[in-house]
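Hi support team,

I submitted a single chain yesterday and got back a structure, but I'm not sure I'm reading the token output correctly. Could someone confirm the output below corresponds to the sequence I sent? I've pasted both exactly as they appear in my results page.

Thanks,
R.
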Amino acid sequence: MLPEEDLEDEGLRMLEVDNRVILPELTHVRFVATSQDVIHSFAMPALAIKCDAYPGKLNSVSVLINREGVFYGQCSEICGILHSSMPIVIESVSIEKFLA
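Hi R., thanks for writing in. Yes, this is the structure output for that exact sequence:
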């Protein structure tokens, strides 16, 4: 999570991250999730993704993003003391920009 004093004008408090996941649009992508300690749940409502991560197991979900944009999500399980501090940001860009 990005500290509040480092937010830019368009940044969303408690949702912005240091490093976004950058993905190309119109490309099938598969996420593989696992955990080392407790159950986590990777949730990105705008992309219709919710994938649980269990210790010792692999779980996968695939997505096709059909437009450019920034999508916000977070862990949606009560997984520990800093549960509310686990945002996820996916930025979808054109294939040309992704390859550059």
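A quick pointer for reading it: The radius of gyration is 14 Å. Let us know if anything else looks off.

Best,
Support desk
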